[in-house]
Write a structure and sequence with these properties.
Helix content: 25-40%
CATH superfamily of the largest domain: ATP-grasp fold, B domain
Distance between the termini: 51 Å
Order of helices and strands: EHEEHEHHHEHEEHEEEEEHEEHHEHEEH
CATH class of the largest domain: Alpha Beta
Number of helices: 12
Shape: globular
Strand content: 25-35%
Bound molecules: adenosine-5'-diphosphate, magnesium ion
Length: 379
C-alpha cells in the first residue's frame, strides 16, 4: 500500500479525549483530521480541522465521514457496528470492523484470546438468570459480573461475594444487556497493560508494559515501566503482539492483564485504540501512542517505543472540580517536571476523565511520588 503522506485526511469516529490527543498529534505531523461526534464542543471536535455533527450509531454520518477522508479510525469502542460497516464501504477503517466486533463483546474477546493459546481470567457466560448457578459454580466466589457489551470505567460490573448478591446483581445487569459474563475475582499481584502497534506489513512494536492502579473500576495511576521482572515484561509484550497479529490489527491494540501472585499473566480485556495507560508515551517516548496509530494506519514505518526515562501518569477525574470550581493548577504545576494535559470538557462530573498529569523522572518511584504529590496539590 502506498503510504498516506502528511497532508492526507484522517477521519476519527468519536470526539473524546483519545480523539483529541490523536488530532493534536496529527496536526503536528501535518495531517488533517475530521471528527464525527454529535457534540461540536466535544474534546476532539475543538482541535480537529473539521467537525462532522452526527451520532456514533448513524451509518449515514459514518459513510459521509469516510467519503470525505483518506482513512478512518475510531477512538471510542462502543461505536455502532453498522456505522463502522457503512464507513468501510467507502474507505479503509483501521483497526477493522471485524477487530472492533471482537473487542466490543467480552465473550467473543475471551474466546478469541483463548483461540490464540493465551490464558484469560476464568469465566462463564450468563444469558438468563437460570445460567447463574452453574456459572458461579464454574468460576467460584468471589466473582465479578459484567455486561458482555458497552461497559467501560468499571460501569456495568458488580463484584459479588455471596450467592444472594450474585442473584441481585445478575437481575440488575440483565436489564441492561442480554448477555453477561461472570469472572472469577483474580487476587492479582498487579495489573499491567501493553499497547502494541501493528502495521499493514505485519510488523509490530510494543511499548514497555505499564503498571496500572485502579480506583472504583477507573484507572487512577499508570507507572511505566511496570516494576516486574524483565521476563514478565517480555512475556506481556509477546502476548500483546501475538493477539494483535492473530486478530490482524492494523493500528493499536491495548491488552490489559493481571499478573497473578504465582507469576502467571491472564488477559483481562482488549482495546483496539489508544489507551489511557499509554498517555505517558506523549511525554516519555520518541513516538507517542497517538503518532504510532497514525503511522500504522497511514502506512508509515512504526516509530521507536522505548522510554526516555520512567514515567507516571495520574488521571484527573471530575471529582477534583466538585465544590471548588477549578482545581489549584498553579500549586500542582509548581512540582518540578509535571506536565498537565486537560481535555477541554466543560462539565466536570464525578468519575469523568477531565485530564491527566504526567511526570518523567529518574526512577519509577520518583515519577510516581511526584505525580501523586502534584495531584494532591490540586485540592
Ligand atoms: N476478574 C477480575 N478480577 C479482579 N479484578 C477485576 C476483574 N475484572 C475486572 N477487575 C477490576 O476492575 C477493573 C475494570 O474492569 P475491566 O474488565 O477492565 O472493565 P472496563 O475497564 O471496561 O470497565 C479492572 O482493571 C480490574 O481492576
Ligand atoms: Mg479495563
Amino acid at each position: 500500500m502506498a503510504p498516506l503522506l502528511p497532508g492526507s485526511r484522517v477521519g476519527i469516529i468519536g470526539g473524546g479525549q483519545l480523539g483529541r490527543m490523536l488530532a493534536l498529534e496529527a496536526r503536528r505531523l501535518g495531517y488533517f483530521t475530521c471528527v464525527l461526534d454529535p457534540d461540536p464542543r466535544a474534546p476532539a471536535a475543538q482541535v480537529a480541522d473539521l467537525h462532522l455533527a452526527g451520532g456514533l450509531a448513524d451509518p449515514v454520518a459514518a459513510a459521509a465521514l469516510a467519503r470525505g477522508v483518506d482513512v478512518v479510525t475510531y477512538e471510542f469502542e462502543n461505536v455502532d457496528p453498522n456505522a463502522v460497516a457503512a464507513a468501510e464501504t467507502a474507505r479503509a477503517v483501521h483497526p477493522s470492523g471485524a477487530v472492533l466486533r471482537i473487542a466490543q463483546h467480552r465473550l467473543r474477546e475471551k474466546e478469541a484470546v483463548i483461540g490464540l493459546g493465551i490464558p484469560v481470567t476464568p469465566f462463564a457466560a450468563v444469558r438468563s438468570a437460570s445460567d447463574l448457578g452453574a456459572a458461579i459454580e464454574r468460576v467460584g466466589l468471589p466473582a465479578v459480573l459484567k455486561t458482555a457489551a458497552s461497559g467501560y470505567d468499571g460501569k456495568g460490573q458488580a463484584v459479588v461475594r455471596r450467592w444472594a448478591d450474585a442473584e441481585a446483581a445478575c437481575a440488575a445487569l440483565l436489564s441492561r444487556c442480554d448477555t453477561l459474563i461472570v469472572e472469577g475475582l483474580v487476587d492479582f499481584e498487579l495489573e499491567l497493560s501493553v499497547v502494541c502497534a501493528r502495521a499493514a506489513d505485519g510488523t509490530t512494536a510494543c511499548y514497555a508494559p505499564g503498571e496500572n492502579r485502579h480506583s472504583g473500576g477507573i484507572l487512577d495511576l499508570t507507572v511505566a515501566p511496570a516494576r516486574v521482572p524483565s521476563v514478565v515484561a517480555a512475556r506481556a509484550q509477546d502476548i500483546a503482539a501475538v493477539i494483535a497479529t492473530g486478530l490482524g490489527v492494523i493500528g493499536l491494540l491495548a491488552v490489559e492483564m493481571f499478573l497473578t501472585r504465582d507469576g502467571r499473566l491472564l488477559v483481562n480485556e482488549l482495546a483496539p485504540r489508544p489507551h489511557n495507560s499509554g498517555h505517558h508515551t506523549l511525554d516519555a517516548c520518541p513516538t507517542s501512542q497517538f503518532e504510532q496509530l497514525l503511522r500504522a494506519i497511514c502506512g508509515l514505518p512504526l516509530g521507536a517505543t522505548d522510554l526516555y526515562a520512567p514515567a507516571a501518569m495520574a488521571n484527573l477525574l471530575g471529582d477534583l472540580w466538585s465544590g471548588v470550581g477549578q482545581p489549584d493548577f498553579p500549586r500542582a504545576l509548581a512540582v518540578p517536571g509535571v506536565r498537565l494535559h486537560l481535555y477541554g470538557k466543560a462539565e466536570a462530573r464525578p468519575g469523568r476523565k477531565m485530564g491527566h498529569l504526567c511526570v518523567v523522572a529518574g526512577t519509577a518511584e520518583e515519577a510516581s511520588e511526584r505525580v501523586l504529590q502534584a495531584r494532591g496539590r490540586l485540592r
